[in-house]
Amino acid sequence: MKKFATLLAVVMVTVFSAGILVAGTAPEKATINEVQKVKSPVVFPHKAHADRIKNCQECHHKDAPGKEQKCFACHKATKTGDAVAQKDAMHTKCKGCHSKDATKKAPTKCNDCHKK
Questions:
Q1: Hey, which of 54, 57, 82, 109 has its CA 20 to 30 A from 69?
Q2: Distance between the two ends of the chain, CA-based, in angstroms?
Q3: Residue 101 has what pLDDT?
Q4: How confident is the model at residue 48 (pLDDT cuts 50, 70, 90)?
């Protein structure tokens, strides 16, 4: 019985640790293609932001840790329910944070993100 309990504890620690490790990995880049009808796609340095911000819920505000979705899973072209439209969500969150950047190196102009 003691061996079984020890084995079970090891398995549980391994499973939960793996979940934490997977949840903590961010893709290097994310390309936001959903804006193509109006502007060029945005190549977003996701890992750099994740490394700097550390808290995924800062941007993925409605998602449980480890269950983060793309912004456009909730934010559509127009306001739906309590989710603001995608353009408003991106510009409020991204430009808002970039405007507060003390180094003033973060992009805030249209063509900084929407490359031609």
A1: 109
A2: 66
A3: 77
A4: very high
The pLDDT value recorded for residue 46 is 93
Domain holding 68, by residue range, is: 27-113
When pLDDT is averaged across residues 26-46 and rounded to a whole number, the result is 87
Q: Which two tokens stand for residue 77?
A: 């072209």
The total domain count for the chain is: 1
pTM for the model stands at 0.65
Yes or no: say if 74 and 62 are a contact pair by the CB < 8 Å rule: yes
Q: Where are the alpha helices (DSSP H) in 45-85?
A: 46-53
CATH of the domain at 38: 3.90.10.10
Residue 102 lies in a domain: yes
3-state secondary structure 57-114: HHCCCCCCCCCCCCHHHCCCCCCECCECCHHHHHHHHHHHHHHCCCCCCCCCCHHHHC
